Amino acid sequence: MTNYLKTYKIHENEAVIRLELGNVPVKCHFKNGNVRIGEWAKLTTANMIVQKAIEQSELFGNSIFLDGKPIPLEEEKKTIAPANITNVQQLRDYLVNEYGCDRTKIASPNALKAKVSEIGLELPNMTW
Q: Whole-model pTM?
């Protein structure tokens, strides 16, 4: 899952807004605005809880706005497995030899799929 750096703005010089996400209180501190010259107070965060609290708030889109495009912080990196891996047994052998996986923990197809997802492995020729 890619995490994003997002900047939010509000038409104030400075504002501290208390929101909730479920039962979790979230404090949002917007600062460095100057209404006289048209600069909005901003909050920049990569915290997904703060982002979700803002975006699920009734203030989002009314008085709190996204400023610019979100910036991805980490791209999901996929590793492409060798083309000769076409079945479950070959995949299991590959994971044991290349990634040091415990063979007993990747015995079922679901366990294999979970490990492949965890590693970020792409299997172009695999048939399940």
A: 0.58
